[in-house]
Amino acid sequence: MLRYLALRLAILAGTLLAASVVIFLALEVIPGDAAAFMLGLNAQPDTVAALRAELGLDQPALWRYLGWIGGALQGDFGLSYTYKVPVSELIGDRLWVSLPLTLYALALSTAIALPVGVLAAARRGGPADIAVMGATQLGIAVPNFWFAMMLVALFAISLRWFSAGGFPGWADPVAALKALTLPAVALALPQASILARVMRSALIECLGEDYIRTARAKGLTRGQALRRHALRNALIPVLTILGMQFSFLIAGAIIIENVFFLPGLGRLVFQGITQRDLMVVKNVALLLVFAVTLVTFLVDLAYAAVDPRLRAR
């Protein structure tokens, strides 16, 4: 188990290092000068040069990369070019919107998909299975921003049960969760459709294995064999999809936060791109990569918890 854990930690560190290089180089090759963009078209060359020196853009790329990574390891993400405040403060303020939204959507997706997938597998070929497969196919085909607009039209404009956008803050947790409900549902529905289909396929495959037939021969009903034996083995591919869904939810949040005017990391990245605030963009991108790789690492640990063969390595 220790060897397995050490290997996963090494993969985590290597992934973060490679991602940081890719992010830095991708922003380096973007045409244009951030200092000239901030000062406008009529800026004088000496003013642009002074701002480049102030922002550290006149240094060699290698030194800027090492300075950025060294600061990030110490929790110093630099100063925003646009807002003139530490990027860590901007991230911290908006993380309390994006992280609850992502976790809320992930919880909804899991709560919807697992029982629906189990139901479809248990009633394979029946009306319930056909209905689930049709609904999930629709959920996969329709993008989350379309779901978002339909939810706003129905529940915010027509029924007036929820607000159409904005975030009141966590001073009132009930109001905050209510403001995140429609965005979370819009994010969760497509992912729940994928997860339900994976759960159904994994369970159907497990129900055809020899150990299930042996359990049935010993007197277990189909439902008992499913719950006691097939369900645990079917969780391994489901855990893989759950880890992948976290990254999909983060990416989808960039669009959904702009639809619902939520002050989260998605809107911060969008604003940083439009304002060419590269310090904000690269630090938020690195943070999102870290979140995704950390979740992948936790999924690998969950594999070991579900599959005893991995713990023996």
Please name the defining characteristics of this protein:
313 residues; mainly alpha; MetI-like fold; 13 helices; globular
Task: Explain what this protein looks like in three dimensions.
The chain has 313 residues and is mainly alpha-helical. It has helices at 2-28, 34-39, 45-55, 61-73, 87-122, 127-141, 144-158, 173-207, 210-217, 222-259, 265-274, 278-306, 308-311. The longest helix has 38 residues, at 222-259. The radius of gyration is 24 Å and the shape is globular.
| Separate helix tally | 13
Terminal residue distance: 6 Å
What coarse outline follows from CA principal-axis ratios? globular
The helix content is over 70%
- The whole-angstrom Rg is 24 Å
How would you summarize the topology of this molecule?
Layout: H1 2-28, H2 34-39, H3 45-55, H4 61-73, H5 87-122, H6 127-141, H7 144-158, H8 173-207, H9 210-217, H10 222-259, H11 265-274, H12 278-306, H13 308-311
Helix pairs in contact: 1-12, 5-6, 5-8, 5-10, 6-8, 7-8, 7-10, 8-10, 9-10, 10-11, 10-12, 11-12
GO molecular function: dipeptide transmembrane transporter activity
Keywords: Cell membrane, Membrane, Transmembrane, Transmembrane helix, Transport
Family: Belongs to the binding-protein-dependent transport system permease family.
